[in-house]
Amino acid sequence: MAPKIVDREAKKEQIVHAAIGVFAEKGVANTKMIDIARAAAIGKGTIYEYFRSKEDIFAAAYNRMNREMEMKIGQILSGSEHPAVQLQMIFDLSLDYFGHDAVEFSAVMMDFWAEGIRRKSPEMMGVINLKEIYDQYREIIAGIVRNGQRQGLFIDVDPVSYASLAIGALDGMLLQMVMSAEIIDIARVKETFKRTMIQCLQKEKPNTINPEKKK
Amino acid sequence: MAPKIVDREAKKEQIVHAAIGVFAEKGVANTKMIDIARAAAIGKGTIYEYFRSKEDIFAAAYNRMNREMEMKIGQILSGSEHPAVQLQMIFDLSLDYFGHDAVEFSAVMMDFWAEGIRRKSPEMMGVINLKEIYDQYREIIAGIVRNGQRQGLFIDVDPVSYASLAIGALDGMLLQMVMSAEIIDIARVKETFKRTMIQCLQKEKPNTINPEKKK
DNA sequence: ATATTAATACCGACCAGTCGGTCAAAATAA
DNA sequence: TTATTTTGACCGACTGGTCGGTATTAATAT
Fold first, then answer.
1. B167 contacts A168? CB cut-off 8 A
2. Which of A27, A135, A197 lies at the smallest CB-CB distance from B180?
3. Averaged in consecutive runs of 10 residues, what is the pLDDT profile of chain A (215 residues)?
4. Smallest Cα–Cα separation from B173: which of A160, A21, A215, A183?
5. How far apart are CA B44 and CA B46, in angstroms?
6. Burial (0-12, 13-18, 19+ Cβ within 10 Å), B33
7. Domains of chain A with bracketed CATH
8. CA distance A170 to A33
């Protein structure tokens, strides 16, 4: 009178995990349900016990990858006080997250990205809403900038424009890292990025804070 | 003994033109051959008289859009002398090209982009090679920077890193324009972009040249 | 203990729809 | 008439999702 019980959440996680792996390897568009099933070592039909559709898995994978990033940023925001340092940490975080050895994740992120654009206008079933995520990130950065301006640390730039620029640069560089990893010197680009984006924001002396990690 | 003659180049152009329109409207992945045929007001089979495959059309469309941009940049490079002005013109060009009323083109560009990434590792049949394009653009920007440095106008930043950053920022902002056009103030972002990316490069007074168009 | 049983998890063959590409016939221009 | 172009019906490969049946588990009865 009592059935087999499984930890449904754990199983979903198992499937999403497998899916991300396959996505990374073959690209979202080229991933078949059977691929995911095999990677998760379950039958194809079983997937449909936990997810309504391929789309559903896609969304779950996206949200999972995103939530991680959000948490880390939350930590940064609640931590250090100096706005320039906060910015630097966020840039570092983003750059590292992708630039790390997990280049394959970057590719997945790109897929999400492309999909997100494609679904911008149409109903988009509430599945992904990349736009919302971007608006949110932009607001985080803009908030830090405003904060810095209020403290008289930053020049009088439009915070939202600056945020757009910073986020855009982050993303665009990601693309190039993915594509031309062997050509561009990633560490160097990262340093240039931080230098440029943060120094240009500061009022007088760029050395008010030290943009270099002490070694 | 001397049958019907058609301008094959013109017909190809007609098809590519139609294809770009459909790509813009529905996204490359969702475009069917029949859609292109209908848009070009020809039969589906006819397409195959001029293109080997869908892939082939895709590549042709990509190259067509790209060649335009290349030509314009060529003009810029051969024109004005001051490196900062050249940079500014290139940024303006890129930002306008997409930001203009032709937002739909941006979406197509994104599709190319996404596809380009997906095809980075595998053989990629020589069809698209986005990487090559990027390497090329990067080298153009880097060249201008080096030039400016040689003339003692620019600070001693790594030209290639700077170029990566600039191109990345350009692309990333494009994404945001496409996605959140109604939220971000595009003109303002553009201005911030130019200010930031060019001023940070200049040695002392940012006003050595006037980054504002005289009115 | 252990056999029974009911509730659930799991599976993969199958289905129905889709779409890129082909080809034989029709249309067309010279 | 004839060389060439155009065409859309057709083909076949592919794939997301379904469904009937099987396996597994744990509560219950003995």
1. no
2. A135
3. 75 93 83 94 94 90 83 83 88 75 66 66 52 84 93 91 88 76 77 85 54 36
4. A160
5. 5
6. middle
7. 58-208 (1.10.357.10)
8. 32
